[in-house]
Amino acid sequence: MVYFVLLLGLAQSLKRFSMEMSEESGKFSEWQTMEHVKSFHSITLQVGQPPQNLSAVVLMDGKRELMIASVKGANPSRVELYNSTASSSYVRLDSNKWYGDDKAILACDKVSFGKMAAANQTFVVVSLNSKSKFDRAALPLWYDSKNDSTNFLNSLKNSGAVNVNAFTVDFENNLLTIGSREEESRKPEDAITFKLAVDTWTADFATISVKGSNVASNNKVNFALEQEDISGPYDEVNLFKSLAGTNKTCDTGASTCECSEDFKGFPALEFNFSGVIFTVEPRDYFSYNNGTCTFRVSDSGQWTLGAPIFEEYLSIFDGDQGTATFYRYHEIKKEEETPKPAEETEEEVEEESSSDGWIIFAYILLILLIILAVGVLIYCRCMKAATDYTKVV
Ligand SMILES: *[C@@H]1O[C@H](CO)[C@@H](O)[C@H](O)[C@H]1NC(C)=O
Ligand SMILES: *[C@@H]1O[C@H](CO)[C@@H](O)[C@H](O)[C@H]1NC(C)=O
Ligand SMILES: *[C@@H]1O[C@H](CO)[C@@H](O)[C@H](O)[C@H]1NC(C)=O
Ligand SMILES: *[C@@H]1O[C@H](CO)[C@@H](O)[C@H](O)[C@H]1NC(C)=O
Ligand SMILES: *[C@@H]1O[C@H](CO)[C@@H](O)[C@H](O)[C@H]1NC(C)=O
Ligand SMILES: *[C@@H]1O[C@H](CO)[C@@H](O)[C@H](O)[C@H]1NC(C)=O
Ligand SMILES: *[C@@H]1O[C@H](CO)[C@@H](O)[C@H](O)[C@H]1NC(C)=O
Description:
The protein is α+β, with helices and mostly antiparallel strands. The chain has 2 domains: 25-172, Acid Proteases (Cathepsin D, subunit A, domain 1); 188-328, Acid Proteases (Cathepsin D, subunit A, domain 1), CATH 2.40.70. Helix content is 24%, strand content 36%. The protein contains 6 helices and 25 strands. The chain has helices spanning 2-17, 152-158, 234-244, 282-285, 307-312, 342-392; strands at residues 31-33, 35-37, 40-47, 52-59, 67-70, 91-99, 102-113, 116-127, 137-140, 166-170, 175-178, 192-195, 202-210, 213-223, 230-232, 250-251, 256-258, 269-273, 276-280, 286-289, 292-295, 297-299, 303-305, 313-318, 323-328. It is globular and about 90 Å long. The structure holds 2-acetamido-2-deoxy-beta-D-glucopyranose (7 copies). Keywords: Aspartyl protease, Hydrolase, Membrane, Protease, Signal, Transmembrane, Transmembrane helix. Pfam families: Asp.
């Protein structure tokens, strides 16, 4: 067990060190392309005068201040790092700061996210070394409910660059939008909206349940796009896994279950946010490979919903209203066990069988055509043979 924890820690730190920059550069509009760098998502910030294009991972958990990575001397990283000497607008404010375990400098410079700029943004400059947790800049997606904060998202609002303290995470199109709610093309009735604390991106749930059995009650869940799985307290996670695996062939040690590619027969994990139901589907909490489903669920101090739910939902976090709003990207195929959608299932089956019917029809047509072609060929050969024969005669 201890070894497992150590290995897990090692794997985590290796992941953090081995982030790589994708070759593609960001698009500079009001929204920005997010690149997937190993388990993280990064965007491009332009810092300084003239602007330096710096890759920054986006975070929702823990950190508050914008961190700009720099390096003393030659840059050993494949990622471009900040060179303050090369910026005419750089101002050093304080050299006795810390960013986690890294010694940092408090400074300010011009910072832009796409077309939106904060002319005099304060941030910490960390000179990276091999022990650093990050290999590039880090942008915490955080709003301070007090207006005097100097963090980047608040600066954009205070400088009038954006109208609302909101951001939209669109994993399907790899876009991050700061300062607006990107939901124009969505149906209002599809919105799942509930209250959450914008300082921590944490929501209070009444229950977490599987098919009516409670897994947890009256606690908090954290949203964190930088976390690659879903996690929760050890006992509750195990209870969830055993409920999800009821009547299924599962391997508790390996955290896997035998399954089909459509995850048929597995239940959803339901979060009840004071009456608003938010579901995590089997396709979210499992990863599928060759008949085996592996839980994307690990242990942590409190429930945290990471990348899997951002893959399921377009996600809008609104710092002014103190809400989170989710829109599902793809509908869920209903199963027979849920009472109401029985008709839908039948329709689906009908549709499937009617499309099967078309395929069979096409095959028969094809076979008939082949028979016809072969027939014509034989007929022609016979004719030819026949004429040859008459010639000889
Ligand atoms: C930064 O990226 C933009 C857009 O891709 C590009 O036009 C500009 O030349 C880049 N600047 C540097 C210093 O590489
Ligand atoms: C930083 O910029 C200065 C001025 O442009 C340049 O002389 C120096 O070589 C650069 N440092 C690195 C590490 O690229
Ligand atoms: C930028 O802000 C810092 C403190 O936050 C201040 O000392 C400095 O004068 C400001 N610079 C400009 C150009 O406004
Ligand atoms: C912060 O500013 C917004 C408007 O920009 C205002 O509605 C809100 O009341 C302010 N909050 C505080 C704590 O001053
Ligand atoms: C598991 O199977 C048993 C017997 O086949 C059945 O009674 C029970 O309802 C099933 N439980 C679930 C959660 O499907
Ligand atoms: C969700 O929780 C509320 C209490 O906050 C409760 O009244 C409601 O019945 C629950 N809904 C479901 C579907 O469990
Ligand atoms: C998939 O699983 C089957 C049986 O478990 C095995 O025979 C086959 O080699 C596996 N295929 C791959 C690509 O791993």
